[in-house]
């Protein structure tokens, strides 16, 4: 056994070209397998099923009654479409921040419907601020002023979208509560009137 260890150590300290090639090839294959497995696991955390595992008793039922889940065109937006940036770096930043939200659920801060409702305004304001800061990028991945035909919109929508462009507003300025119930807003002082339903 000692002889075998010495032989391995000698090979390790002065490997042949074949050994270096094998080592590089195995490292490359291991890297691909690791990245593939890691990416698959990460993508699983973007699914509606994963989000539902914690949110089935609070926001999932209300989301399933929204226009983002069921609508006349059959186009569906899942949780990650609205709550996760598509770009690589922003996606990773958001995933890291989301780890604190998972921690809050695991440690019991928002693990019941009652606790969730008590924290809903704080969580909503944090999400609205994030979306305001990135110009509602997740909304704009599907909805974009440049692609809208205002003549096909209802009169009030056409008027509000025209005003939003003129005033430099972003989607979340008006469309709070589009996929989830609004928190209790009676003590909130703001210059907007949030909408619950919009198309």
UniProtKB/TrEMBL annotation:
<feature type="binding site" description="axial binding residue">
    <location>
        <position position="101"/>
    </location>
    <ligand>
        <name>heme 1</name>
    </ligand>
</feature>
<keyword id="KW-0812">Transmembrane</keyword>
<feature type="binding site" description="axial binding residue">
    <location>
        <position position="143"/>
    </location>
    <ligand>
        <name>heme 3</name>
    </ligand>
</feature>
<dbReference type="InterPro" id="IPR051174">
    <property type="entry name" value="Cytochrome_c-type_ET"/>
</dbReference>
<dbReference type="GO" id="GO:0020037">
    <property type="term" value="F:heme binding"/>
</dbReference>
<dbReference type="InterPro" id="IPR024717">
    <property type="entry name" value="NapC/NirT/NrfH"/>
</dbReference>
<keyword id="KW-1133">Transmembrane helix</keyword>
<keyword id="KW-0479">Metal-binding</keyword>
<protein>
    <recommendedName>
        <fullName>Cytochrome c-type protein</fullName>
    </recommendedName>
</protein>
<keyword id="KW-0472">Membrane</keyword>
<feature type="binding site">
    <location>
        <position position="82"/>
    </location>
    <ligand>
        <name>a menaquinol</name>
    </ligand>
</feature>
<dbReference type="InterPro" id="IPR005126">
    <property type="entry name" value="NapC/NirT_cyt_c_N"/>
</dbReference>
<feature type="binding site" description="covalent">
    <location>
        <position position="79"/>
    </location>
    <ligand>
        <name>heme 2</name>
    </ligand>
</feature>
<feature type="binding site" description="axial binding residue">
    <location>
        <position position="175"/>
    </location>
    <ligand>
        <name>heme 4</name>
    </ligand>
</feature>
<keyword id="KW-0249">Electron transport</keyword>
<feature type="binding site" description="axial binding residue">
    <location>
        <position position="180"/>
    </location>
    <ligand>
        <name>heme 2</name>
    </ligand>
</feature>
<dbReference type="InterPro" id="IPR011885">
    <property type="entry name" value="NO3Rdtase_cyt_c_NapC/NirT"/>
</dbReference>
<feature type="binding site" description="axial binding residue">
    <location>
        <position position="83"/>
    </location>
    <ligand>
        <name>heme 2</name>
    </ligand>
</feature>
<dbReference type="InterPro" id="IPR038266">
    <property type="entry name" value="NapC/NirT_cytc_sf"/>
</dbReference>
<dbReference type="GO" id="GO:0019333">
    <property type="term" value="P:denitrification pathway"/>
</dbReference>
<feature type="binding site" description="covalent">
    <location>
        <position position="171"/>
    </location>
    <ligand>
        <name>heme 4</name>
    </ligand>
</feature>
<keyword id="KW-0813">Transport</keyword>
<dbReference type="InterPro" id="IPR036280">
    <property type="entry name" value="Multihaem_cyt_sf"/>
</dbReference>
<feature type="binding site" description="covalent">
    <location>
        <position position="51"/>
    </location>
    <ligand>
        <name>heme 1</name>
    </ligand>
</feature>
<dbReference type="GO" id="GO:0005886">
    <property type="term" value="C:plasma membrane"/>
</dbReference>
<feature type="binding site" description="covalent">
    <location>
        <position position="174"/>
    </location>
    <ligand>
        <name>heme 4</name>
    </ligand>
</feature>
<dbReference type="GO" id="GO:0046872">
    <property type="term" value="F:metal ion binding"/>
</dbReference>
<keyword id="KW-0349">Heme</keyword>
<keyword id="KW-0408">Iron</keyword>
<feature type="binding site" description="covalent">
    <location>
        <position position="54"/>
    </location>
    <ligand>
        <name>heme 1</name>
    </ligand>
</feature>
<keyword id="KW-1003">Cell membrane</keyword>
<feature type="binding site" description="covalent">
    <location>
        <position position="139"/>
    </location>
    <ligand>
        <name>heme 4</name>
    </ligand>
</feature>
<feature type="transmembrane region" description="Helical">
    <location>
        <begin position="20"/>
        <end position="38"/>
    </location>
</feature>
<comment type="similarity">
    <text>Belongs to the NapC/NirT/NrfH family.</text>
</comment>
<feature type="domain" description="NapC/NirT cytochrome c N-terminal">
    <location>
        <begin position="16"/>
        <end position="185"/>
    </location>
</feature>
<dbReference type="Pfam" id="PF03264">
    <property type="entry name" value="Cytochrom_NNT"/>
</dbReference>
<feature type="binding site" description="covalent">
    <location>
        <position position="142"/>
    </location>
    <ligand>
        <name>heme 3</name>
    </ligand>
</feature>
<dbReference type="GO" id="GO:0009055">
    <property type="term" value="F:electron transfer activity"/>
</dbReference>
<dbReference type="GO" id="GO:0009061">
    <property type="term" value="P:anaerobic respiration"/>
</dbReference>
């Amino acid at each position: 056994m000692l002889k075998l260890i010495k032989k391995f150590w000698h090979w390790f300290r002065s490997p042949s070209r074949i050994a270096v090639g094998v080592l590089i090839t195995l490292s490359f294959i291991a890297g691909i397998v690791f990245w593939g497995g890691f990416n698959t696991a990460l993508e699983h955390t973007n699914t509606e099923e994963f989000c539902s595992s914690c949110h089935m008793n609070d926001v999932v039922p209300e989301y399933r009654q929204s226009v983002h889940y069921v609508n006349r065109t059959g186009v569906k937006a899942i949780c990650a479409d609205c709550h996760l940036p598509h770009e690589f770096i922003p996606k990773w930043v958001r995933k890291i921040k989301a780890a604190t939200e998972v921690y809050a659920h695991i440690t019991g801060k928002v693990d019941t419907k009652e606790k969730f409702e008590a924290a809903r305004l704080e969580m909503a304001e944090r999400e609205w601020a994030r979306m305001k800061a990135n110009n509602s990028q997740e909304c704009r991945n599907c909805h974009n002023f440049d692609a809208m035909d205002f003549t096909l919109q209802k009169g009030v929508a056409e008027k509000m979208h025209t005003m939003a462009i003129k005033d430099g507003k972003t989607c979340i300025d008006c469309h709070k509560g589009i996929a989830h119930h609004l928190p209790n807003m009676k003590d909130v002082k703001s210059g907007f009137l949030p909408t619950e339903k919009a198309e």
